[in-house]
Amino acid sequence: MTSVLNVLHVIVCFFLILVVLLQQGRGGGLGSSFGGGAQVFGGRGAGNFMTRLTAICAAIFMLTSMSLAYLSSAGDRELKQFETQQGK
User: Fold this and answer.
1) Is 31 inside any structural domain?
2) What is the mean pLDDT of residues 35-40?
3) Which residues contact 47 (CB under 8 A, 6 or more apart)?
């Protein structure tokens, strides 16, 4: 389970970096350097699509981060419970 989450986390991380870099900001962004500013999604459609895609990727990234943190602390909880039982 942890290895699947790790792989998904890394893939989402790279995709999130790519999506953020391709967004067109005030300076034109990295997306305008590829293709000379050709509009693939229309005038405002690209901004809405990229914003929505960034939010989805960020949400998945946060969920995988919290899941991995919870799973990694499971060993600490088991160790603490074991030490408590041994102390009795």
Assistant:
1) no
2) 52
3) 23, 24
